[in-house]
Structure of 3-carboxymuconate cyclase:
Amino acid sequence: MHFSVPIHLTVALLASGINANLDACPVRSGGKALYVQSNEQQNYVISIPIGSDGKLYGGIATLTNGMGSDIIDGTTNAPAESDALSSQSSVFVIDDLVFAVNAGSNTLSMFKIDTSDPSKISMVGESAAIPGEFPVTVTASTKRKTACVGYTGAKAGVSCAKFTEHGLQQMKAVLDFELNQTTPPVGPTNTVAQVFFAASDTRLVTTVKGDPTTNNTGFISVLAFQDSDSSMFQSHDVRSSLPGTAVLFGGVEIPHTSELFITDASFGATALNLNTVTDRVSLKNKIVIENQQATCWATYSRARGSVFVTDAALDRLIEIKADGSKILSTLNLTNGDPGLTELKAVGRFVYALSPGNGTIEASITVVDAFEGRQIQHFELEKLGAGQRSQGLAIY
Ligand SMILES: *[C@@H]1O[C@H](CO)[C@@H](O)[C@H](O)[C@H]1NC(C)=O
Ligand SMILES: *[C@@H]1O[C@H](CO)[C@@H](O)[C@H](O)[C@H]1NC(C)=O
Ligand SMILES: *[C@@H]1O[C@H](CO)[C@@H](O)[C@H](O)[C@H]1NC(C)=O
Ligand SMILES: *[C@@H]1O[C@H](CO)[C@@H](O)[C@H](O)[C@H]1NC(C)=O
């Protein structure tokens, strides 16, 4: 990504002794293309070019050669009608690679982005078979040349594979979770929410939701690599269950800190401290969002130095201080979406997916985070993404 910063500003900041934070400048756009997965029986990655004005234009669908799926909604005992995977990061972008899980066929697909036309992606090698069931979340590290997938069916846990320019190598289980789940799992509680790398790619973090109806608080797993440059993990993770939390869901590491910002669907969000000596995670701040219903996804905005969260059942975007100490802004949207799921902040914009509700189309809301207003509501049906669509990643 390239940010152009007025030279006089940089010089002034340096001269004043302030660490020039280029990321803090309200750049117009940092994104070139956005990716979601349709998560339909025949699964597609939908890629949409982002214009220099931050808006979405056109778009194409590329087969993953895998199958999507949906969780069983524990309140109805029927397939979930939206938020089908109940996870964050089912699509992940790093450098010029896109990764997507196929929840219904237990595979991971890897694609290369055409850097001259980033909505064009092509599969690299074969999809990798995952030694587990119902994969919902993926992350990757170029430093470790490793991709890891969290799965939450009858066999729940995390597996990782090395990747090269020729594709993914064999996936190997690194963590097993005794969730007593089925395939597909009954959720959204008591399932894996997200995997991500933290602490300069020295730790793999997995959030596992609890279930307030059974006093199960869930946990955060931290798995360290054996050393600074191998792709081998230690044999055991460290799991922290945090009193006062119940359904820890999607989150993000706050850059240049040892803090994690993780939503909790039962009350709002948490700022957590990751101790890189003990690998324990502790609660630093808990932010209760009034009238929230299911706050599940979070993204860090470099441009604003804050975190944005969405609620699966409310059409609004909430901005929270990165240390979780207070709500900074609430943007009530009026585009008719029943709620918002995964989101990403890039440059001065925030992009959030709504899977719709079957009648209302799936769409992406684009918000100018500095002006605090929606600049686009982009419908996805024409691209083949409907109520089961999940994930949102940006190149
Ligand atoms: C899963 O089932 C086993 C055996 O019945 C039980 O010991 C364990 O506590 C259960 N775990 C959860 C998370 O319910
Ligand atoms: C959960 O914990 C509370 C407080 O300890 C207790 O009153 C309640 O009965 C427990 N519920 C279940 C389902 O175990
Ligand atoms: C957003 O909507 C909520 C609930 O309707 C309301 O309480 C709040 O004041 C609104 N916030 C703004 C900034 O409009
Ligand atoms: C979707 O939401 C709209 C607006 O609330 C409602 O009119 C419609 O009946 C809903 N559709 C379904 C399938 O629930």
Summary: The helical segments are 7-15. The CA atoms of residues 66 and 363 lie 23 Å apart.
